[in-house]
Amino acid sequence: MAFESLSTKLQNVFKNLKGKGRLTEADVKTAMREVKLALLEADVNFKVVKNFVSSVTERAVGQDVLEGLNPAQTVIKIVNEELTSLMGDETTEITFNAQGPTVIMMCGLQGAGKTTTAAKLAGKFKSQGKRPLLVACDIYRPAAIEQLKINGGKQEVPVFEMGTGVKVIDIVNAALKHAESNGNNVIILDTAGRLHIDEEMMQELRTVKESVKVDHTVLTVDAMTGQDVLNVAETFDKEIGITGVILTKLDGDTRGGAALSIKAVTGKPILYVGMGEKLSDLEQFYPDRMAGRILGMGDMLSLIEKVQSDIDEKKAKEMEARMMKAEFNFNDFYEQIQQMKKMGGINSVLAMMPDMGNLSNAEVDDDAFKPLEAIINSMTKKEREKPDIINVSRKRRIAAGAGVDIAEVNRLMKQFEQMRKMMKQMNGMMKGKKGLFGKGKLPFGLG
């Protein structure tokens, strides 16, 4: 997960500060040296790091801080504020025209995830009540057109394409007429990417912008390419002018420095971040929330939004009703596992919870769900609905079907019984109170 190493190091720095109680100017400066090293190791631009550390130090060594009631926490607060400011202070959203279509031109290098991101954006806009149209403008790679059609189909968003033997500007003009005839009010142009920036690529993009009113020029960059992201962003902005950036693959094994540097270096906001391979894994970028994640303060607002968007409300209410009657069974248990996976897995959820984001994948492994699923899938319908009928002979059959030792089945049965007992105890406590899956509550015992 991006920022995992940085987050751990920064939290260790702040832990040491808290342990001192009273702080001296020397304590702060020592801590800032460690912060500086942590940021540089996370691939944050050197000038950005220098300015950041200077700003924090200047604010943190003031008399009001060092002589305050809780100086360590005040320093952390300052770091949080400066980190938020570094990434852009305010969230920047794509705006739409009140009259006429909104044209968004996607650009970027090949392999950055531009085509997939275009489809993700279209799906987001559709869920907001828009009528998006994806336009295949990559005349160099037939596979790109096919990829856009497949991803557009998954989002149930129409794709306009004219193949590869046509000029890009002709495709764009025809797409605009098609959109007007079919009531599409958001047009997303998926332009061609290259392995490197070249003049032909830039001229093609300039021609589109000179001929058509493009409302947003959005650059898609791969977070895993590190500092090179900044060079790409600066070049695209200089050559064609970009309005914002989408950072992909921020969920991968990346140090995340680009997310902390790009606004400061280019002056362009990060609009969205890609946090997974699924078409739904495109998150609005909130600088304050990202700062909270990095500093181990969590991101409960994003987690709540994720719960509300990913969890089937009807199923949740049905499950809650059974829980309140102490009728929790293996179907419910299995459903909670699936809901957790829909939300990106347990590590994705923990990364948004205060003081939980630095848990390693080894400590909370999503693969641990696989044998549980196999065991439950090996049960009969009746066994899942009425767990009490599962005796020793049934356990042997279930274990054989799941390809596990019977001890694994016994372990699952024990965990299930503990959860069911907890549900019974909560039965009386929860009457007349907000439901287990009400606003802001989490599944799988995390709320």
Note down, in words, how this protein is organized.
With 447 residues, the protein is α/β, with parallel strands linked by helices. It folds into three domains: 4-86, Four Helix Bundle (Hemerythrin (Met), subunit A); 102-297, 3-Layer(aba) Sandwich (Rossmann fold); 304-430, Orthogonal Bundle (434 Repressor (Amino-terminal Domain)), CATH 1.10.260. Helices cover 55% and strands 9% of the residues. The chain is built from 20 helices and eight strands. It has helices at residues 4-20, 25-41, 46-60, 63-66, 71-86, 114-127, 142-154, 168-182, 199-211, 228-239, 257-266, 287-294, 300-310, 313-324, 330-342, 346-350, 369-377, 381-385, 392-402, 406-430, and strands at 102-107, 132-137, 159-160, 186-191, 216-222, 244-248, 270-274, 282-284. Strands 3-2-4-1-5-6-7-8 form an eight-stranded mixed beta sheet, sandwiched between helices. β7 (270-274) and β8 (282-284) form a beta hairpin. The longest helix is centred in the C-terminal third of the chain and has 25 residues, at 406-430. The radius of gyration is 26 Å and the shape is flat.
Overview features:
single chain, alpha/beta, Four Helix Bundle (Hemerythrin (Met), subunit A), Rossmann fold, 434 Repressor (Amino-terminal Domain), 3 domains, eight-stranded mixed sheet, 20 helices, 55% helix, 9% strand, disordered C terminus
